[in-house]
Amino acid sequence: MSLRRIWVITDGRLGHLNQLRGLLDRLQDKSDVELHWLDLTKQNFSFKGCGHLMSQFKTQHRPDWILAAGSKTHLPMLWCKWVTGAKAFLLMRPSLPLGLFDAICMPFHDSPPERDSVLGTFGVINHIVPKYEGRNDHQGLILLGGINKHFSWDNAAVLAQLKRIAGAQTGIEWLVSDSPRTPVGLLDALSELALVNIKVLPYSETGSGWLPKILSQVGQVWVSCDSVSMVYESVSSGAPTGLIDLAPLRESRVTRSMAQLATSGLATAYAHADLSKKLPSAVRPLWEADRVADWWLQLDSACL
């Protein structure tokens, strides 16, 4: 198994970092890789020659691949590709012509074209590892988003759905957490309902590793459909997942993505759920980071 040297460029955004780390974790399990990172929030990129680039990435070797996510990484990535002769793998639909990149991974809701160099995924890659055994069927999780540009957030409608979910399965203890977008006072209003099987945990009181851990433990999860990352993390975790309903403001890639998820059987829409029963498991496992790693390795082998 030959060593693959990879330069990784990040814009520092947490969502993009989770994509990169999720994919690289799987790649490291399957192949022999050497990684060198450049965080554009901590170090300015210099458009200079190969020797200077190797100094920026703190290595004495040219890369085989450059991996990146985020629009700010496009030009540094392409410069590295041009100067070093490496191949470029981008984790998003680029704002530049697709032909400039050797491999692209993008969600199906971004309408990936049919090309050998492009792979479509259900949602964005994440760092969640699936778990199917040993879950606590007496514990459930509810994750709430908030104000966004794709769905109309309605506190009263959300609270009504949470009340019905909790009331339909009284033997389950539901833990409810919010997010930075959640309207102030929503968790307080939920607490005032005095539902005996609901416990509130604000996101501000959770740690960095809390969500992956709790997703691996609970028997089922409900997520508001505006929270794309949390929805796909829940489905990827192996937990049966339901989508709390919100009225769409317009048709967008996010609303299409949530519709695709429900119609594909990977998650259950609130309107179609039997609330008296545990949410059904996804019709198939969803571990896109693992699938993309396999695709990347096949593509790399074909280039040799």
Blueprint of the fold:
Blueprint: E1 4-10, H1 14-30, E2 33-39, H2 50-56, E3 65-69, H3 74-84, E4 87-90, E5 103-107, E6 118-121, E7 136-143, E8 151-152, H4 155-168, E9 173-177, H5 186-192, E10 198-200, H6 210-215, E11 218-224, H7 228-237, E12 241-244, E13 247-248, H8 253-263, E14 268-269, H9 288-303
Parallel strand pairs: 1-2, 1-3, 3-4, 4-5, 5-6, 7-9, 7-11, 9-10, 11-12, 12-14
Antiparallel strand pairs: 8-13
Summarize the structure in words.
There is one protein chain. By secondary structure, the protein is an alpha/beta fold. The protein has 2 domains: 140 residues, Glycogen Phosphorylase B (Rossmann fold); 137 residues, Glycogen Phosphorylase B (Rossmann fold, 3-Layer(aba) Sandwich), CATH 3.40.50.2000. Helix content is 33%, strand content 21%. The chain has 9 helices and 14 strands. A 6-stranded parallel β-sheet has the order 2-1-3-4-5-6. Strands 10-9-7-11-12-14 form a 6-stranded parallel β-sheet, with helices on both faces. Strands 8-13 form a two-stranded antiparallel sheet. α1 links the parallel β1 and β2. It starts with a strand and ends with a helix. The mean pLDDT is 95.
